[in-house]
Amino acid sequence: MPGVVAFISAKDVPGQNRRLWFNNPEELFAEEEVICVGQIIGAIVAETREQAKRAADQVAITYQDIQPIFFTIEEAIEHQSFFDPKRKLERGNVEEAFEKADHILEGELYMGGQEHFYMETQGLIAIPKGEASEMELFVASQHAAYTQEVVGITLGIDSNKITCHVKRLGGGFGGKVMKIASLSAIAATAVYKTGRAVRCVLERGDDMLITSGRSPFLGKYKVGYMNDGTILAADITYYSNGGCTLDESSFIMEKALLHMDNGYKIPHLRGRGLVCKTYLPSYTAFRGFGGPQGLTIIESVLHEVAVKCGLPTHQVRDINLYKDEKCYTHHKQLFSPHDMVRCWNECLEKSDYTHRCLSIEQFNAHNHWKKRGISIVPLKFGIGFSKGFYNQGAALVNIYKDGSVLISHGGTEMGQGINTKAIQIASRILKVPMSSIHIKETCTGNVPNAAPSAASFGTDAVGMAVKNGCEELMRRLEPLIKKHTQYTWQQLVVEAYCQKISLSATGFFMGPHTSVDWEKSEGSAYYYFTFGACCSEVEIDCLTGDHKNIRTDIVMDVGRSINPALDVGQVEGGFVQGIGLYTIEELNFSPEGVLLTRGPSQYKIPALCDVPPQLNVHLLSNAENPHAVYSSKGIGEPPVFFGCTLFFAIKDAIAAARRERGLSDSFPFSSPATAEKIRMACEDCFTRMNPLDKKVQIKPWAINV
Ligand code: MTE
């Protein structure tokens, strides 16, 4: 075909046709079996995008169906199709405690997945250098070192010949750690075959289909509680849909289990985690990394217990909170919940919670078709990697003779503000204005073997490394500073150069050795915890299922913020992403496992009208954190979970509608709380006209995976 340069498939890969992740191989090009709709079989290289697309349309493939194929968590449970390892965490004696409880409740919560919907889809440019197999990749990756490694293994070339450059990402949200490495390896294979530079940028629909997103979760629980709402024991089995390959799903499940206690001292607690293997595109990391799913399911337990006890939900949450000065999590990590309880109390106060509950009651008494609801939740979120070796950071600080400073670090800028904070830290130590300090890019040639910018730990690790590098330079400059007190910074630097003092230093941060012994159910999984609390009020329209987010108050403990504007931005941004996760964003798959929602016209992300008109973010005052740089805290991921306050507030509002109609206020409901689900949960004479209610068998157009 005109313009087509090459067709690349598994046979063109000079090294390994595998991306390896902790010994879990994933094929770059399908070789014998295609295990999901969206798997890459080959790549077409053409002069233009249009020519490549036209050529791709001409590819005809005949498939033979694999049997059986299945896509949903329920089906995977039926087929006992799970990835290893299966995880368990346990404290206390759950069975014995069930015997002592006043009541036992069993239930479940399904939480749908989420598409990253970063502004910039996955993309890269790979350029051959024409010498010694060297290659440069300009790539939007959150983990440049991993991309470099995968490209090297694919081409059979040493890492020292492959350089990955990351200027910045138009949003990553966890989605550009793993999948971009495969895409880079495919583009690099095309470079290898053609000897020409290759650009690969996914269109939105393909990006959504191929790279997938947050895993759907199903939590099945049994809980034992007392009449006053105190929870004695909970036994929760978490199932996630991992799709067709493991990717990061086992670590995501671990994080869900490690967060299953949230801020609650449930003395007897057991969690099991199983990652379902299905024939869907492989799910991957997404901001929160299993945390939101693990937390939401325990919040659902608290909510249902309160409903059953006929008690206000905030009261049941309050009496179950960790409150002692020194507490142990269910994985036996020591921590102090002091600042979490402060956030909780401040949030109750700042949101005027008690008073607003009364107003909501009045509103609901006077309105039949519109109902309001409110919800407040606490948050304890672990920061850092539970795989301890990732907890490291590195940086390179160069001072030039004109006094300007260039920083390279191992983190990647994706909008979270890592570069701004790194420059602030350097400016503070070197005592030069921020305008004299520059960060050009992240480059594997400058800072090797860097950890991914993930787990809300990137800025922490890099910040410490930059501090370390700058302090080293200041140590070298100190004698000159003392001797030439009248010198300007630039004069000092020139003098150091003339004295043959190196003006380049590496900085390193060896983070904590976190780890979990899954056999013993114990371990310090996190460096520290970021705390918070959030309260939201909503109004639903019982006839249309539409809802309005009225007001949200968040109190967040970020320690001593290095940059409050950035931190508040992260809280707001994370919360808005949570609005999408819990109330709007719904991925629909056909019964044949084809993703139907492949763009903004089918998949809705939050718009301005979804942001509560009153969104108050307060940073907790007088908070400290001895563990992180300048007593700050990681904040990138935790606020996403706060979107669940809207989910529970909607549930509260639906319950008010149902009570008025003489129906039970305990009813099944799953996330996201879409208009369709809200409408159907507000049962009335109109919903009863729905044939589904009459148990007529209709093949669904879309399935919950
Ligand atoms: N904020 C913006 N604007 N864009 C992003 O892609 N990623 C989030 C969060 N905030 C993201 C973001 C994710 S997934 C993580 S882990 C943290 O930022 C990373 O920030 P850190 O470098 O401070 O750890």
TrEMBL record:
Stated name of the protein: Aldehyde oxidase/xanthine dehydrogenase a/b hammerhead domain-containing protein
GO molecular function, a single term: 2 iron, 2 sulfur cluster binding
Keywords noted in UniProt: 2Fe-2S, FAD, Flavoprotein, Iron, Iron-sulfur, Metal-binding, Molybdenum, Oxidoreductase
Organism expressing this protein natively: Phoxinus phoxinus
The Aldehyde oxidase/xanthine dehydrogenase a/b hammerhead domain, residue ranges: 1-67
InterPro entries, per the entry: Ald_Oxase/Xan_DH_a/b, Ald_Oxase/Xan_DH_a/b_sf, Ald_Oxase/xanthine_DH-like, AldOxase/xan_DH_MoCoBD1, AldOxase/xan_DH_MoCoBD2, AldOxase/xan_DH_Mopterin-bd_sf
Domain of life per record: Eukaryota
Cofactor(s) it depends on: [2Fe-2S] cluster; Mo-molybdopterin; FAD
Family label: Belongs to the xanthine dehydrogenase family.
